[in-house]
Each structure stands twice: as C-alpha cells, then as structure tokens.
Design goal:
With about 325 residues, the chain is α/β, with parallel strands linked by helices. The chain is built from 7 helices and 13 strands.
C-alpha cells in the first residue's frame, strides 16, 4: 500500500511539473507572439519627429495600467493588449504607466518590450507608481525601453525623474501636433515645469506658432477632481464613469495644469491610475482624460477594459473613442 501511494504521488508530481513546464513554455511563447500590424508613421528620433505623408486620420492608441507581473496575469494582459491593438489599428501606441507591477522581473520587461515591438508600430511609454517598485532600477528600465526597435522612449534630463520627452507630428512635411510624455509617478516638481515650459516654447519658436499638444502621464491632476465636482454639482452629464468613488490625484504637483493653461498649447491631458474611472471632462479649455485599464492584474471591472483611441482628423481636430473588450471574448485560454 505504501509503495502504491508513493508511486501515485511520484506520478502526480511528474504530471504537475510537466504541466507547469508546458504552461510556462506556452506563456513565454505568447510573450513573444504578437501579430505585426505596421504603421505608416516615419520616425526621426534624432529630431523628435513623427511623419505621415497623407491626409488620412492619425490614430493614437492609449493603453494604461497593463501591470505585467506573474505569468498568468501577463498572459491576460497581453491578450487584452493584442485584441485592443487589432481593433484600433493605430499609427502610434502610448502606455500611460503602471506598465509593470511590484516585483516584476527584468526578463518580463524584456519579453514585454519584444511583444509590443512585434506590432511594428511606434510606441511610447511613461512610468507609473508601480513601475518604481519592480526588481529593477529605473535606469535599467530606461535602458531596456530605449533598446526597443519601435520604442520612442527617451530618459530625458529632468532631475530625479525618468522619461520626459516629446515628439512633433508632421503631416506632409508640416508640423501639426505635439505629443508630450512626462513622468509624474512620484511628483511633479519645478524641474518638471521648467522642462515642460522650455519644451513648449522651443517647439513654438521652431515652428513659428504654438502647436496644439497632448500630454501623457500616469497620475491624474487635482484638476480632474475639480472638473468632476463641477460636473456633479451643476448636473452636467459626465462623459464616462467614476466607479472608483474618487480621484487618486498626484498630491505632489507644483502646478502642471496651470503651466499648461498659461502656455496655451495643451488640448488634452491623458492619464490612467484609477482602474475603474473612465470619464473625460472639459476643464478651462483643456480635456482631462482617463484612459481605460488594459491589464487584468490588481482591481478592475471586466466590462471596462481595453483602451482609448485618439484620432487627429485631416483638418487637425480630434476625436476620442473608447474601446471596450468583451469579457467573454479572449484569444487565449485564460478567462
């Protein structure tokens, strides 16, 4: 009897180990297996220019809070990313922070970068608060992102901050829009404001006019709360939802919104962080825009996962569309 039990346990352990190896191999396969889509955008990293040579819509897909961590959650997140990208068919992808999760390993970020690169679409990440809590230094993450073939990331030179950079979009040789990427995961200091002011003024001087711009970062600003309160107390219908019951805004902010308002370039400020808030509010002439949580780690609602698609029209106006994934429609085995 004892021999039989020991043999059964041995067989069970072998089966379990085999299953884990197969699952791990499958997971790593998926981590290296996105479908090429391609983009008509021509990238000039040296001069920070993204060029399109036609009059078609220019589509920018925001993915947020992908939170790549353990293999199971990574598969779910990559599934959601692939489905959202396939639905949007964007020209550019932006990740608005919490790309990774507490304790995420270096090999996971390497696989993640390879996965996004295989869409063959230019992409630009910023950091979130959880990106500061991985098993890597911030400098290591910066170097890995900068090594991505299609990744636009630049570390920048803001003191004690990582990933403050910009690109100008040119249509048929003419500058039409600026995309500004900022790291506000820990704070927004006077150093950030100085960099932002110098960047917008430099672009204006170079182009001979103030270009409209979108600014991407992770944590919402306190003005998001002010905007929501304004809508709520004036019975103005909200575009989107506030399911989180509040706004977890950046409390260490030296005044990014006021600086943007003063410079007159920003048309939208775009972020994530609150996984169940999706609302977009017009506040003092600037759209304040929550993204849609893309990953499935941490708290979330199954019916509000996907991304936001920002489209610059041929007349240089823009539209915003939300992409929600069907919770029952998944490519892979994890539901």
């Amino acid at each position: 009897m004892k021999v039989y039990i020991k043999s059964s346990l041995a067989v069970l352990l072998v089966c379990l180990c085999s299953s884990l190896i197969i699952l791990g191999s499958y997971a790593l396969y998926i981590l290296n297996c996105s479908s090429p889509i391609g983009s008509r955008v021509v990238v000039d990293k040296e001069n920070n220019i993204l060029s399109v040579n036609d009059d078609k819509d220019i589509k920018v897909l925001q993915l947020s809070d992908t939170q790549i961590t353990a293999l199971g959650d990574a598969l779910k997140a990559l599934d959601a990313i692939q489905m959202t990208v396939e639905m949007a068919q964007p020209d550019l992808i932006v990740l608005t922070g919490d790309n990774l999760m507490n304790g995420s390993k270096k090999f996971m970020l390497k696989k993640y970068i390879r996965f996004i690169d295989e869409f063959e679409i230019p992409w630009a990440p910023v950091f979130g608060n959880h990106d500061y809590k991985t098993d890597m230094t911030m400098d290591t993450q910066c170097k890995l992102y900068e090594s991505g073939k299609y990744c636009l990331f630049q570390k920048g030179n803001v003191t004690d901050s990582y990933g403050n950079y910009y690109y100008n979009i040119h249509r048929n040789g003419n500058p039409i829009y600026s995309l500004v990427f900022m790291d506000n995961a820990i704070s927004t200091t006077e150093h950030h404001l100085e960099w932002y002011r110098n960047t917008i003024n430099s672009i204006s001087n170079e182009c001979g006019k103030v270009l409209p711009s979108w600014t991407f970062f992770h944590l919402p600003l306190v003005e998001t709360y002010y905007a929501y309160r304004q809508y709520y107390y004036n019975d103005i219908p909200l575009d989107g939802e506030m399911r989180d019951g509040g706004v977890a805004y950046q409390k260490n902010d030296a005044g990014l919104f006021d600086t943007a308002k003063e410079l007159g370039s920003a048309t939208a400020m775009i972020y994530g962080h609150n996984h169940r808030n999706t609302f977009i509010a017009d506040y003092k002439g600037i759209k304040l825009c929550y993204g849609i949580k893309t990953g499935r780690a941490s708290y979330h609602d199954e019916d509000i996962q996907g991304g936001c698609l920002y489209t610059i029209k041929p007349d240089n106006t823009f539209t915003i569309d939300r992409i929600f994934l069907d919770p029952e429609d998944r490519h892979f085995i994890f539901k």
